[in-house]
């Protein structure tokens, strides 16, 4: 009897392992973990990547940073940018950083190949929001030989109370906390188990995404933040600060409004939602240049390939490529 149980256990384990391998290598589903020692998580100040990172992974991909904390490829560990060239910086959260994608395949990495006479910097930080982006623009970017600063404006950028690293999907308002399931999700032990498993198992990520409908749920949760006065006030405050700084550097900041995957389904491509209109109107009021990337994605023949599988926000290699081509045309 014990032998039969043991054999059945081995068979079950091998089946699970086979499914895990299939999901990871054939369906391009990525784990969602962040190794410690990559991001400065000191809550007393805005976060940034640690300098000279050599070890660790984000969403299953090895990451490296230079002496400034900017993401680089392994063979560019030591900063070899030319001093007399113009500089372009890309600022934002995990989409800009390139979660689940090697740096050479991110839109900043692709543009770096296209423009050898311009220094391209990936100043993206996992979990960065509007306040943190302003901190990066003001304190991490040199104005000398500055050509442009591209800043991603994502739906999750306007909440002043979010913990920046690892727990965005656990962020909840008071009414949600009254829900039994949300209480379970908010349990510290369960949350930590969730973070650990999703960093190791793509089968878990896929199952959770399919059962819970993470694409739609993630979008709705972030979209609702735009209906709270405190979040809108927070957005206006930091956009005013960015505008003031932008004026001082001769309007070199350009926002990229990169949508979530749910925003480019056939129905949502037909019109702008409440949050998109607010973002665009606030940028227009301050005469800050922006590009609505949703139009680019919606009009693409392979828009189902733009995001990582079952991922609500992060771009695939293909998504980074078409965005890079779009930005390259802007630079020309």
Describe the protein's architecture and organization.
The protein has 332 residues and is of the alpha/beta class. It folds into two domains: 1-30; 31-332, Rossmann fold (3-Layer(aba) Sandwich), CATH 3.40.50.1110. The chain has helices spanning 2-25, 94-97, 107-114, 130-139, 174-177, 180-186, 188-200, 202-212, 214-224, 229-248, 274-285, 293-298, 317-331; strands at residues 57-58, 61-62, 64-65, 71-72, 86-91, 118-122, 146-152, 253-257, 289-292. The strands form three sheets. The chain has a five-stranded parallel sheet, sandwiched between helices. Strands 1-2 form a two-stranded antiparallel sheet. A two-stranded antiparallel ribbon has the order 3-4. The chain starts with a helix and ends with a helix. The model is unreliable at 161-178 (pLDDT under 50).
Topology (SSEs and partners):
Layout (H helix, E strand, L loop, with lengths): L1 H24 L31 E2 L2 E2 L1 E2 L5 E2 L13 E6 L2 H4 L9 H8 L3 E5 L7 H10 L6 E7 L21 H4 L2 H7 L1 H13 L1 H11 L1 H11 L4 H20 L4 E5 L16 H12 L3 E4 H6 L18 H15 L1
Parallel strand pairs: 5-6, 5-7, 7-8, 8-9
Antiparallel strand pairs: 1-2, 3-4
Helix pairs in contact: 3-13, 4-10
Summary tags:
13 helices; 332 residues; two-stranded antiparallel sheet; Rossmann fold; globular; 2 domains
